[in-house]
Every structure is written in structure tokens, then in C-alpha cells.
Amino acid sequence: MNQSIHEPKATLMSATDVWEDAQTLAAVLRKNLLKAEPVIQFPIPLSLFLEALDNFGHDELLILRQRVEEKLAV
Q: Is the Cβ–Cβ distance between 56 and 64 less than 8 Å?
């Protein structure tokens, strides 16, 4: 199999650099998705909501905490 580099004089990124770039890109995409995501209201059982919390990641939990704190401050 013949492989070529688009920019032959360019240095290749290390695996760590690639991973860090991927994490940065994922964070930006997540942030943009949250901005663009439409919000709808619908009643759900509290138990279902609490079960869904178990699947939230750290970033989602931080967003939820911020929203709850805003609601409690009113």
C-alpha cells in the first residue's frame, strides 16, 4: 500500500498532541451543540429523570448544577 503525506515537509503530530486536539475539538462541539439544541418542556416521572442522571457525564452534571443553582436563586 502506497502512503503519502499531503505536506511532506510537515512534522507529524505525536499521539498526545492528537489526543489533546481531539479533546479540545470535542469540547467545542459539545458547547456548540448545547447552544444550538432546541429545548422543549414535557412532564416525566422524577424517577426517570433521576435514573437519567446516572448516565450524565461530568460536563453535563456541571451544566445541570448551574441550572439548578439559578432556579434556586430565584
A: yes
70: amino acid identity, one letter: E
pLDDT band at 7 (very low <50, low <70, confident <90, very high): confident
**C-alpha–C-alpha distance, residues 8 and 39, integer Å:** 47
Question: What is the pTM for the complete model shown?
Answer: 0.41
**Domain extents in the chain:** 15-73
Q: Which residues contact 12 (CB under 8 A, 6 or more apart)?
A: 5
Average pLDDT of the segment spanning 5-26? 82
Q: How far apart are CA 28 and CA 8, in angstroms?
A: 29
φ, ψ dihedrals at 32, nearest 5°: -65, -35
